[in-house]
Amino acid sequence: MKNKPVYVEIEIDTQMDKLWRATQTPDLHEQWDLRFSSITYLPKKENEPQHFSYQRKLGFGQRIEGWGITAGSHEGNNGSRTSSLHFGTDHPISPIKEGKGYWKYIPNEKSITFLTQYDYDANFGKFGQILDRILFRPLIGWGTALSFDVLKRWLEKREAPFSQYLRFFASCFATILFCFIWIYHGLIPKLIYMHPEEMLMVKNAFQVPDGKAFWIVVITGIIEITFGVIWLYYKNKRHLFCLQIILFPFLTITAIIAEPSSLIDPFNPLTFNSSLWIISLIGFWMSKDLPTATTCKRKR
């Protein structure tokens, strides 16, 4: 079964020359395109296409290096432009072997439609084709769409790509962190092990017997796990950060009133919840108007 090519399209309110320069100049291109860490044009011979090399850093000193050829560009009668590309790599861990694609720039009245379509042969035989279909192709399509939105915001709002990616990945890190914290604290000390301190705080706070305290702890654990899952799926993370900014002081005061002696414990409710409150404040500020892949069309 042949895979569908990756297709991404976006409207950008800018001038053709600015968009062309941002996408065709290596040191500008590598700033906004998540797929590349660096792009280097090689010396060009007369009457031959432009060759270049690229790198994608993977972390821990690992990187994938590849080659590319700007096969040519074409300007249409309506002012549109097209740039064709041939690319590939011999790196042993790269999921891509070789591919071709193009960028197209279509001028409108007040904007430019910028789109790309590309396809490639997957590495690692049939296993690589299956892995590409279910994982890598959707991932690289998402990365292309996110990069296009970063480019759009750079040209329209003048926010540098580095700043956009810093805010985006900081928000992703905070999302994973809070998802883990809420699920862990709902599951481990409340549902699985039912820590005595959890029971004691509930009994002191609500003045209830063991039986009712048990069910309050269980229900609280279920609520915390649910909230942790919501962190993964709820799109507007600013709402969740705002809720936590209100919630953590309340939880801190309640825990201290229920068990004042906890203030002398290491990682007590005051220090722990204060840290999460500060992270929530930072997350609320950094998550405003984040770049997103959802602004792009993914089908013709």
Structure description:
With 300 residues, the chain is α+β, with helices and mostly antiparallel strands. It has eight helices and seven strands; from the N terminus they run βααββββββαααααα. The chain has helices at 16-24, 26-32, 125-157, 161-192, 196-206, 210-233, 237-258, 269-286; strands spanning 6-12, 38-41, 50-59, 62-75, 81-88, 96-107, 112-122. It has a seven-stranded antiparallel sheet. The longest helix has 33 residues, at 125-157. The relative contact order is 0.12.
Give the topology.
Layout: E1 6-12, H1 16-24, H2 26-32, E2 38-41, E3 50-59, E4 62-75, E5 81-88, E6 96-107, E7 112-122, H3 125-157, H4 161-192, H5 196-206, H6 210-233, H7 237-258, H8 269-286
Antiparallel strand pairs: 1-7, 2-3, 3-4, 4-5, 5-6, 6-7
Helix pairs in contact: 4-6, 4-8, 5-6, 5-7, 7-8
Number of helices: 8
Main-sheet strand order equals 1-7-6-5-4-3-2
Beta content: 15-25%
Q: CATH homologous superfamily name of the largest domain? A: START domain
Q: List the quaternary state of the chains.
A: single chain
Total discrete domains: 2
Largest sheet: 7 strands, antiparallel
In the predicted model, the low-confidence regions spanning at least 5 consecutive residues are none
From the N-terminal CA to the C-terminal CA, the straight-line distance is 20 Å
Please write the string of helix (H) and strand (E) elements. EHHEEEEEEHHHHHH
Structural class: alpha+beta
Kindly state the mean pLDDT as a whole number? 92
Summarize the amount of helix as a percent range: 40-55%
Tell me, what is the CATH class of the largest domain? Alpha Beta
Radius of gyration (CA) equals 26 Å
CATH architecture call of the largest domain: 2-Layer Sandwich
CATH level 3 topology of the largest domain: Alpha-D-Glucose-1,6-Bisphosphate, Chain A, domain 4
* Number of strand elements: 7
In one word, what is the shape? Answer: elongated
Transmembrane segments: 165-193, 213-233, 240-258, 270-290
Keywords: Membrane, Transmembrane, Transmembrane helix
Protein name: DoxX-like family protein
Pfam families: DoxX_3
